[in-house]
Structures are given as structure tokens and as C-alpha cells.
Amino acid sequence: MSQVILQLWSNNAISLLQNSIGASDTTLTVQPGLGAKFPQPTNPGEFFLITLEDVNAPVAREIIKVMGRTGDTFTGLVRAQENTTALAWPAGDTLVDHRMTAATVHQSFIYGGQDGGSVSALNSIAGSGIYVITSPTTSAVRSIVSSNPFINVTNGDGIAGNPTISLDLGSANQILGMNAGGTALEYKNIVAGSNVSIVHGVGTITISSSGGGGGSSLELYAENPVSPSAPSATGNNAVAIGQASAAQAQDSIALGPQSLTRLRGQKAWATGRFSTTGDAQQGHYALRASTINNTPTVLFLDGPGGSIPLSLPDDSTWTFRAVVTAHRQDASDGHGGWELKGVIYRGAGAGSVAIQGKVSSQVIGRSNTSWNVTATADTATGGLKFTVTGQNSKTIRWLAVVETVEITN
Q1: What is the residue range of 290's domain?
Q2: Using CA atoms, how far apart are residues 88 and 180, in angstroms rounded to an integer?
Q3: What is the spatial distance between Cα 17 and Cα 4, in angstroms, rounded to a whole number?
Q4: What is the DSSP string of 264-317?
Q5: For residue 312, which of 341, 366, 374, 355 has the smallest C-alpha distance?
Q6: Among 19, 52, 185, 275, which has the highest number of CB atoms less than 10 A from its own CB?
Q7: In Å, what is the CA distance from 370 to each residue of 295, 304, 360, 385, 394?
Q8: Which CATH number fits the domain that encloses residue 382?
Q9: pTM of the model
Q10: Is there a single domain that holds both residue 283 and residue 239?
């Protein structure tokens, strides 16, 4: 093991102490502008030495190792070096001197001094390999080796040139995986199981169903497309299944030929159309809200604090059936259920929406008679509005599931 000397030096670095320090302080300040005369540690482990003494009675002295300097302030002081004692030093009467010490001379003779220390240390290393710093003052020889059978190291000691590291790529049609015991990696062959075919291509491995007994496929569904118009799902996280179905709203599902979703979370089902997609279908919607008092509150498709209403398209009629459930969140003694039925239609524009006749409303059961649900036509949004009334100082969750039969011209 060899040592590298990281002690720094400068010439004519001397000052008086600007501020008094105690015996345990780890910072000190010299007179303004004189800090620049002292060395500047910049790398880990670098330092310089100073000696403090009283200019009026130069008997007591303390040698200090300085690990950092910012302007006129010395930081990271390691006190009481070379068998000296840490003392309290007064401002103005204390000399701060960057002078030679016995330990410095000793290191210079053994390791070749600051300029020759690294070279001397390198020359003293036995053997061959890669030189590394193992601590701020020590170094050693190392080699790059592999402890994994799938990692190859060439010229790990760097003697013949740069070391290279590469992976053992295994054989054709193999993948690298964990062994059965979970203790090491191993290369595994890709083989086809029952009713599975594997095709190895350039840059790809294709795994597909090859059909089961009787020619049946492995999927839990089957298709028989005959020149269909493709479905489309343009809403975020939407799904469209069926010829020419269109899921245009976020989180919606359009199921069946010519079904159409327009509203968030809508589920539409159709078996065809009169003339345009979505003009003859069933709709399924869920609206939510929370109440904490008896202020009437509207349910929305995007839930509490939301703003998406259950709006009708122009020139349409819906027959609706809504089942509403209320459940108190802050206690276990609040419950309610309602069923509302009716017919709502809309002509041209939101202001034309209206209820045909009246809404049939039935209380299935409720724990508090002040809880209530109404269904009305909302001329502001052109839709069907469900309004719930809760109870003061009671937190209640409300959910309405609305089924509709929809015709749109």
C-alpha cells in the first residue's frame, strides 16, 4: 500500500487573527485580503498547515490542519496537530503563520514531497494493474474481474490496452433468465407449448396460438367479420366493439353495431340504426355527488365537484329509469333508495328540453325523511338533472345509475 501526500503550500502566507477563537472552534478568520496568500484546497483530502502563536509572548504555539478556505475564512480546522495543544487565541495579537513543521519535513523525505509524492507512490507500487486512490492518502493496484459467468472481461489489468467488458450472448433463440432456485442467471431456450407456435425472426420472436383440439382457438371469444365497417374509439380510455360503433367520450364503452357514446363514462348498446350512428340505442350512465348539509346538490357524470351534465342531443327523446342510492359516510345509520321514471325530450337548443308529463318517483326506503331526490329538465345544459337533498352536519354519498332508451333524429 502506498501513500499520496495531499498537503498544499504557498509562499509568504502570514497574517494576524481577525477574530478571537476558542479551543474547540473549527473556523477562524485572518485579516481582510490576506486569506488569498494561503493555499486553496479544492480536491477531497487536500489541506495546509498553519501555526498560531502570541506575538507578545511567543511561547505557546498550536499547529492546525486547515481543510478548506473561503476568502479570509479558514474552515474544517483540525486542532492540536503534531503534539501541540488546542488553545484559545485572541484577535489582533495572534500570528497566523503558514510555516514548515516537523511532520512536513518527515513526509518530504519519505514520500518525495508534494510534487513528487504521487510519482514516487506510483513507482513504489509492486506488480502491474490499474492504479486507484483508495483513500485521501492511500492508493493500490486493482484489476477488473467478473463474478458473473455471463459477463466477459478482457485485459482487466489494462497492461495490453484498455479493458473491455462484454456480455455472453448465449446461443440462437435463447433468453437470459433466473434459474429455478432463484440464485443465478442462466440462458433458457424458447420452446412451444401446447397449441402455441413460436417463430424466430430477425429482431423478433412471434408467439401465437396454433389452435386447440377440434380447431378451437385459445381465446375466450371468437370473431366472424364479413367486410365490416371498423369501430372507432377516440375518447381517452374508451372502448368500441361492433361494426361502425364509435366511442367518442372519455372512459366510455360503445357496444354493438352503430352504437355511439357522447358523454363521459357512458355505456351505449345498439343493434343497428335508423339513419345515423347512435340514433337508436340504450344508454347507461352513473352520476355521483356528496352532501354535507341540506343544500340541494346536482349529481354529475364526473362526480363530486364535477361539471359534466347528463345532456341530450338535439331532436331526441329518452325514456329513463334511474335508481338512486344514498349512504352516510360519517356514520353507519344513514341509508336511502329511490326509483325515478319518466320521459324527457329536446328540440333545438338546450332551452327546449322538457319533461313529458311528470316524473314517477318512488321512495324504496330511507332512514331520514328529509333526504330526497328529484329529476327535472335542465334548460341551462339541455339535459336531465338529478338533484339530491341531504341533511345538515351529515356527510352523505349519492349514486344514480340511469338507464335510457334513446331515439335521435
Answers
A1: 279-408
A2: 68
A3: 31
A4: TT-EEE-S--SSSTTSEEEEEEEEEEEESSSS-EE-BTT-TT----EEPPSSEE
A5: 355
A6: 52
A7: 11, 21, 19, 20, 12
A8: 2.60.40
A9: 0.50
A10: no
Quick one: 398 and 286 in the same domain? yes
Q: What is the pLDDT along the chain (409 residues), one digit of tens a residue?
A: 444 568 999 999 999 999 999 999 999 999 999 999 999 999 988 999 999 999 998 889 999 999 999 999 999 999 999 999 999 999 999 999 999 999 888 776 655 444 444 444 555 555 677 877 777 667 778 888 887 777 888 988 888 888 898 877 777 667 777 788 888 778 777 777 766 777 777 767 777 766 554 444 456 677 788 888 999 999 999 999 999 999 999 999 999 999 999 999 999 999 999 999 999 999 999 999 999 999 999 999 999 999 999 999 999 999 999 999 999 998 888 999 999 999 999 999 999 999 999 999 999 999 999 999 999 999 999 999 999 999 999 999 999 999 999 999 9
323 found inside a domain: yes
**Total domains, the chain:** 3
Is the CB of residue 298 less than 8 Å from the CB of residue 304?
Answer: no
Helices 113-123 and 102-111 sit at what angle, rounded to 10 degrees?
Answer: 40
| 142 within a domain of the structure (yes/no) | no
Do 385 and 378 form a contact (C-beta atoms < 8 A)? Answer: yes
406: β partners: 281, 318
| Half-sphere CA count of 206, side-chain side, radius 13 A | 7
Q: CB–CB of 29/19 below 8 Å?
A: yes
Rounded to an integer, what is the distance from CA 35 to the centroid of its chain?
A: 46
